Amino acid sequence: MTAVTRSDTFSVATSTESDAMPAGDRALLPDPIPSSGGQLDDAMSCIYAVISQLQALDVESTQESVAENKTLQDADLAHEQGALKRQEANEAGSGRGLFSSIGHLVSDVAGDLARGKVGQAISGTGSDIGDAWNSPKFWSDLVKGLRTVSEVAEGIATVARLVPGAGTIVAAAAGAVDEAATAGVTLANVRGAYFAAEVMDAGADAAADQHEVGSLQTEAGWMLDDLKTADGSYGRALDALRGAIKIGDETLRGAASITVRG
Amino acid sequence: MPQSAPSQVPGNVPDARCRAVEALYAAGHWLYTQQRIDDAVTVFRAVIRVAPHDERGWLALGACHEAQDRHDVALELYDEARRVAASAPRCGIARGRILRTRGMNDDATDAFAEAARIAEELGDEDLSALVAAEKRRS
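^ inputs. structure came back:
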């Protein structure tokens, strides 16, 4: 393997590299289980099988949502300026949508994972993230997106039943996706109920409402972090794996194809 | 929601999760060694997602951030590993290296000492050798 170019402080090298390195630079990053061990070969083949099947899944709803939300980026976000405007904003067709906002939420997952500061970040007034958090459109899209996630999870599970040998690896993937999607739907429903109530109480004091928003944001911060990880990281991980395996490992692809064909 | 879908999948789920972690880690490791750091980052995040108690995910994600000269993020990840992972001696060593580079020698020494203690408890000779090498460099 080729080691990553390192800066002065980047010394977390791979074990393969360590053989030719001074003891002080010996690897910290453990090598994966040797591919000759059999089990990993099977696991990697299973991942490829899943990815191959995922490629066949038509996620048109997601693509359509992205296109749809591009037309909504100029929507009025003046829901904090008064009860009347809030009421208008709380109707689930206004505001900035999920797919135009989620990028901000997943912009630095590592930092959020380490600190759990999602709730604090989205409380920032005037920020895009804050606008998204207060946008009914965002939550409406979120539910749609979660349904897509659930469909993908179901597809993964279906693959597990169809592809010999793929069951175990797929079970973990499907379970993780499904678990996160469930948590996300719960969160979205709670938030949706809040907006529904707010529409009925359009004359309520704006400051009091904002206090309620803040409390809910704080309580939901960790839940959103979990959802965000699944919605962004897990999906993009599969994307990365798809590219990696397709481009980088013809041998694995061949082995996996055999697995897919049974 | 396909609540019943995972249960319909054959095989032992805990074992499946372990294999998923190994496969994801292997893929991330390969991406890392290919210098495809952005891709590796997403995969290692998934490793953490599936197995937060496995030190390797945190260590590898931290390594990716170090490769991108984001040492503050790496340091936070290594710190988080100490709190979340079952045992994180290698993250301790990586953390010590960053602290030493920043001239925080006392903190670095403490980090290496903690890693040495864990290595001794585990009876891990390779890890002990790693720690010893770091101590010599300090």
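The longest helix of chain A spans residues 206-248. The CA atoms of residues 88 and 99 of chain A lie 21 Å apart.
thumbs up if we can close this ticket
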